[in-house]
Amino acid sequence: MAISPPMKNNRRWLIANWKMHGNPVRVHDYAYAVNAALSAVPATLEVVFCPPALYSATAMAALPHNRRLQLGAQNCHAFAEGAHTGEISAPMLAEMGIAYVIVGHSERRARGENDGDVAAKAAAAIDAGLMPVICVGEQAADYESKRTEAVLKEQLAVLKQLPSTRYLIAYEPVWAIGTGKTPSSAEIIAAHRAIKSVLGSETAVLYGGSVNAGNAKEILGLAEVSGALIGGASLEVASMKTLIATACGIMKE
Ligand code: PGA
């Protein structure tokens, strides 16, 4: 299988997924501080802040006109509008200046989202001009029975219809999320290669699941890894700044 050399597509992403955390003051101060930390960061590194959607405007208001920090949402609906109480559509996110949206996070799949739902949300996001960050990954039992690649292939099959340059994949083993456990580098490489073998070698694949200041250098240093989706370690400015510095260091090497 041909894997593109790391320099061929040298863009990298660090995506902060705050999940259901924060308040207006924290969101405002974090957005301001992380954006300020990006002034000397190469343009090829995109840093994305995904607060609860309710606080998107608060984050935006904290940012200067020439901001480097991008904003993302944690979910969207597959339809542009309609009778869907409590939902937010992709065009609504785009109108608020949001550029990214996470779809298919395992915490949402656990509540009933299936592969078809995830593909429909990703397609809606692309149609609205957003970059979907499509999460895939195996459960602990699949990992233990060495079914990781089979599970990934099932989850990815419905995505083949989408243009691969218009989305990011986040490989997030479910057992690694919020647990402090991570796969070995060899396992991350194998999973990322399996994803690229289905969707195309040009597909940007991020890793997510217990990324922190201690393991970021090794994970982000893997040629197959185009960045990270970060939960817990993204919540504090200091730890996010460390991850940004680590990514910058690797990109300069
Ligand atoms: P974690 O979460 O970094 O806290 O493991 C990652 C995620 O759920 O996206």
Description:
The chain has 253 residues and is an alpha/beta fold. 37% of the residues lie in helices and 15% in strands. The protein has 10 helices and 8 strands. An 8-stranded parallel β-barrel has the order 1-2-3-4-5-6-7-8, surrounded by 4 helices. Helix 9 links the parallel strand 7 and strand 8. The longest helix has 16 residues, at 237-252. The chain is globular. The model is unreliable at 1-8 (pLDDT under 50). Bound molecules: 2-phosphoglycolic acid. The site of 2-phosphoglycolic acid has 13 residues, from strand 8.
Question: How do you describe this structure in short?
Answer:
The chain is 37% helix and 15% strand. The protein has ten helices and eight strands.
Radius of gyration: 17 Å
Query: Which percent bin holds the helix content?
Result: 25-40%
User: Tally the helices: what do you get?
Assistant: 10
Share in β-strands? 15-25%
Strand arrangement within the widest β-sheet reads 1-2-3-4-5-6-7-8
Distance between the termini: 26 Å
Look at the structure and give the mean pLDDT. Answer: 95
Low-confidence stretches: 1-8
Bound molecules: 2-phosphoglycolic acid
**Helix/strand/pairing category:** alpha/beta
Strand tally is 8
Shape: globular
Largest sheet: 8 strands, parallel, barrel
Q: Could you spell the SSE succession in H and E letters? A: EHEHEHEHHEHHEHEHEH
Q: Which descriptors apply to this entry?
A:
single chain, 253 residues, alpha/beta, eight-stranded parallel barrel, 10 helices, 8 strands, globular, binds 2-phosphoglycolic acid
